[in-house]
Amino acid sequence: MGVDYGRKRRAGLLVRAGLPQALLLLVLLGLATSALAAPKIESWVTSKGAKVLFVQADTLPMLDVRVVFDAGSARDGEVPGLATFTNAMLTEGAGDWDADALAERVEDRGIRLGAGSARDMAWVSLRTLSEPATRAVAIDTLAKVLAAPRFDADAIERIRQQMLIGLRQVKQSPSSIASRRFYRTLYADHPYAHPSEGNEESVAKIDEGLLRAYHRKHYVAANAVIAMVGAVDRGTAEQIAEQVTAQMQRGRHVPSLPEVPEVQGGELRQSFPSSQTHIYVGQSGMARHDPDYFALYVGNHVLGGSSLVSILGEEVRNKRGLSYSVYSYFSPMRAQGPFVMVAQTKNSQADEALEVMRDTLQAFIENGPSEEQLEASKRNIIGGFPLKIANNGSIVEYIAMIGFYDLPLDWLDTLTDKVAAVDVEDVRDAFRRRIDPAGTIAVVVGGAAD
Q: pTM for the whole thing?
């Protein structure tokens, strides 16, 4: 944290000194790079076919491990919610330990064990002291959790009830309803269309057989990426990776996802008894390996990615007071993730807010950002980069993402250079080719409180 405060202080002095924008950006790039260099990533493949990415970090006596599988909800098949349900069961008992015994085993040693899933991926994470005795227990536990979850009947019912409660809460949230309907409309029959948490009908019918079959197919070594950051050397890291995968089946990587369908633009409205109307506007955006990735990413930071100081924030909130919260984002995934603009507004102002959002997007595509706006966004992105890799937990998430999406190992090293290289014409060209205001889908939920 001290490093970052120092960087901010120096940057502020440079701004007041009146340095030219281009020169200031180069200086900030140098400060970001020198303040916290991107970690050196080493990579190899285990004997069972799991990809490993490793960063040695000896500052703290800790080890972070994140094992990622191509086992997100895009792999649910005909049972929405199955991927999420299976992933949640991994930490509910494994091997000889039921849920309580497993919890005691890790908590007594200060080990942190977690799991999660999204549309593309599912993961299990571990944080432990790097000293050999505790580390050995932690890695043994992780290996069992990944390869031999118990799927006890009482644990299955506990997770089912948790998921059903969450689904009932979704029905009370206009924002969640709007998001779900946006995805369902945008992706049609694509695996991204259904929500990761499934629906009440599908969750109710998931049983031990479905859970075991999903685990047997997806939680295999060839479908896994192991990310490690911590105070161990390369040789020890190789031993850990072999131990983590030793009890897994080799298996195979799941097939590629289908292409995202082309969906015509339109407007969908759903009445909901709330004082706020929730608006989602967007279309297909980009995948992780998109050649326009940095132009779209930096451009969106100007348009709506930097919250209140963005163009959307200025036009919708500051000038007209139509919404306290308005923003936009790209969500790059294996297949094309969405580009979305989101706002919440008073019911009586919903039509005006939607019109301003669309007009703002149209004007941005036609004109692009100004030089001043673009340089300010690039400074913000580059200046904030050191904080994003300031601790082992952040780094392990980044390198897991790099391994999962098969990005170059120098992706973190080159990120700030690629951001700095984006110019106004790059943004204008990418948005004109990729984003069609007339083809966007608008989902508006609310308006019935009165």
A: 0.90
